[in-house]
Amino acid sequence: MKGQRLNKQTFTRKQEIRFLAMVSLFWFAQYIYIPYQTTYLNLLGVSSAFTGMVLGAYGITQLVFRFPIGLCADSIGRHKCFIMAGTLFSGLASLFRIFWGDGMGYLVANLFSGLASAMWISFMIFYTNHFSTKGQQAATSRIVLFNNFGMLIGFLLSTIGYSRIGMMGICILSVCAGLLAFFLSLQIKEPCQKMETIDRKDLLSVCKIKRLWLFAILALIQQGIQLTTAMSFTNQILKDLGGSNGLVGLSSIIYMVSAVGFAAFASTFLCCKRGPKFWIPAVFVVVSVYCILVPSAKSSSELLILQILPGMSTGILFSYINSEAMCGIPAEKRSTAMGLFQAVYAIGMTTFPIFTGTIASAFSIRCSYMMLAGIALIGTAVSILYYMNHSSCRKEN
Fold this sequence. Notes:
The protein has a single domain, classed as Growth Hormone, Chain: A (Up-down Bundle).
């Protein structure tokens, strides 16, 4: 098999700004409708179990396509085409929400949104490849920061606009953002380098790296709980407490402001000084506490304050798990490794919402959140045991 191999290159300031703007627009398109998706489906009469399936559908296409996309990107040594496809699919997904606006339409739309997010591999690898090994953690935190910033702007506009333009208007904004991101992706400069033979079996050898699997499973727990709670069922709990549509939007905004702030903190020297050995298990404990306290909240104000906690999960925990998983992976295999990593955590994004919705329908939402808290504590225990026997990859290298 033959493919392209890129040499290390650096961004100009203008290119980096353009790229990070595209990242924010992409995630804006992907998440602007999220604060009201669960409550909107509930308003349509969709059951909690089917709502869980709709939420889980977002992870299904990521589970199926992320590893093949990563393998293909490494094989051909190119990322621009996958980035372009991702931005295009992000806008296309919301067209289904506009023209087929029932539960089944949202199910299909989330499948396409998941396909768009499956291309996130190339966004991350293309960006971090422009930085040295020492700069990988900061670069990862930076792209996660702009990822979260795009979501935050989406949540702000949806909160302001939902009562005025409704879900259809919000989905139109999603389409526009996706198209603008696609336009910016056309301007990405990816120089063509000399061809060389690439052994696919050699690329697949990353599947034997135990460390990669460990952090992929930790990401599975983190992403599964985050998507299920802070971005979905927590908003329904807030609604059940008598919260208005505005409060539902405010809840998501508080969560995203927290995520952006903690992502910025994750790239600072103060945070890096403690390192993943401290932050990964510590934030898993915070996630567990969040899952215990949310269904016990007695008022909307309590729930709004609690939405600060999952911001640590998104901003710090996810950044560190990403960088730890990729540390030590050769540059020519990083897309394949990232594809495997993201495919594994997509299992959590697919199964956790379905699992939570089913438990909530059969028993109660409190019961489902308690089980999620227990799973977060498993993540704490696994990470502590790992670091008791291993140093951080950054120190090893």
